[in-house]
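pls design
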C-alpha cells in the first residue's frame, strides 16, 4: 500500500493518471476538485459559496478542502490514497502530513507531473469528461469513438467544466505558480519528490509513475 500525491498545474494529466491507478492498483482517488464540484451541485451553503470561487479559477479556502479530506480519511484504504489536486498550499501540505500521522499512515511519494505552460492551454480548452464514469477526453487528441457517446460506459452525459476556458485557466495557472508550486521545493527538501514528463505519451507517463511507486 502506498499513499501518493500527484502534483502539477491544471491540465498536467493528474486526473487521467489517477483513474488508471484506481483501475490497475485498486488505489483510492481523492480529488478535492471532484469533491467541490459535487458540493457545488448539492445546493448546500458551502456548495454555493465555492461555486463562484471555482468559476473564477481561484482557490477555495484551506479550511474547506482540509475538512473535505479529513472526512474521507480515517485510516488506510485499498491500495493506498492518490491525492489529486490536494494539497495546493503549504498549509494544506502540513495538514495532510498531520492527518496521515494521526491515522497511522505515511506519505510515500510525491510525483510532480512536468508540462510546459503553452501545452496546458491547448489541453484544457479541448477537455471534456463523462458525467457518468469520469473518463477524460479531448476534442483533438482523444475524441470519443462515436460522437457524443462515452467509449467506456456508453453514457451520453458528456460535459465541459465551467472553469475550462481561457480566462479561468490563466487565473488557475496564476494560483498554481503563486501558491502551489512552492510545494515542489517543500517535498524535495523532505526527500519525497519525484518528477515525470507529463507531456510524454499517456502510457509512458503511466510507466514512469509505476516505477516511482514500485520503489516507494
Ligand atoms: P481541479 O479539479 O483540481 O482542477 O480543481 C478545480 C477547482 O477547485 C480549483 O480551481 C479550485 O477552485 C478548487 N480546488 C480544488 N482543489 C483545491 C484545493 N486543494 N485547494 C483549494 N482549492 C481547490
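designed seq:
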Amino acid at each position: 500500500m502506498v499513499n501518493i500525491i500527484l502534483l502539477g498545474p491544471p491540465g498536467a494529466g493528474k486526473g487521467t493518471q489517477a483513474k488508471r491507478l484506481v483501475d490497475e492498483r485498486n488505489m483510492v482517488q481523492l480529488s478535492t476538485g471532484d469533491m467541490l464540484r459535487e458540493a457545488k451541485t448539492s445546493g448546500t451553503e458551502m456548495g454555493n459559496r465555492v461555486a463562484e470561487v471555482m468559476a473564477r479559477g481561484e482557490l477555495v479556502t484551506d479550511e474547506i478542502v482540509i475538512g473535505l479530506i479529513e472526512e474521507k480519511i480515517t485510516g488506510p484504504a485499498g491500495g493506498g490514497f492518490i491525492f489529486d489536486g490536494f494539497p495546493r498550499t503549504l498549509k494544506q501540505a502540513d495538514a495532510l502530513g498531520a492527518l496521515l500521522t494521526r491515522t497511522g499512515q505515511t506519505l510515500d511519494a510525491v510525483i510532480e507531473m512536468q508540462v510546459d505552460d503553452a501545452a496546458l492551454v491547448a489541453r484544457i480548452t479541448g477537455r471534456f469528461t463523462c458525467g457518468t464514469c469520469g473518463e477524460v477526453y479531448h476534442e483533438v487528441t482523444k475524441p470519443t469513438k462515436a460522437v457524443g457517446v462515452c467509449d467506456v460506459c456508453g453514457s451520453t452525459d458528456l460535459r465541459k467544466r465551467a472553469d475550462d476556458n481561457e480566462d479561468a485557466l490563466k487565473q488557475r495557472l496564476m494560483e498554481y505558480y503563486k501558491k502551489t508550486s512552492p510545494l515542489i521545493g517543500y517535498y524535495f527538501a523532505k526527500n519525497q519528490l519525484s518528477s515525470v514528463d507529463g507531456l510524454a505519451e499517456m502510457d509512458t507517463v503511466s510507466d514512469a509513475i509505476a516505477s516511482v511507486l514500485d520503489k516507494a
